[in-house]
Amino acid sequence: MKVTKFFLAQEAMKDEKASPAVSSDILEFFYQGVGLNTTGSIYVPTSGMTPEISGSPTEKSLLSWAVSNLGMDMEELKRSCTVLHVVAFNSEKKRSGISLKKKNSNAVHVHWKGAAEMILAMCSSYYGSTGVIQVMGEGERMKLEEIIKNMADQSLRCIAFAYGQFQEEDLEKNDGEEAGQKLKEDGLTLLGLVGLKDPCRPGVRKAVEACKNAGVSIKMITGDNIFTARAIATECGILDPSDPNLNNGAVVEGVEFRNYIVEERMEKVDRISVMARSSPFDKLLMVQCLKQKGHVVAVTGDGTNDAPALKEADVGLSMGIQGTEVAKESSDIVILDDNFATVVTVLRWGRCVYTNIQKFIQFQLTVNIAALVINFIAAASAGEVPLTTVQLLWVNLIMDTLGALALATDRPTEELMKNPPVGRNQPLIMNAMWRNLVAQSLYQIFVLLILQFKGNVIFGVNADVKNTLIFNTFVLCQVFNEFNARKLEKKNVFEGVLKNKLFLGIIGITIVLQVVMVEFLKKFADTERLNWGQWGACIGIAIISWPIGWVVKCIPVPEKQLFDLLKRRSS
Question: Taking Cα atoms as reference points, which of 164, 208, 205 lies closest to residue 32?
Answer without folding.
Answer: 164
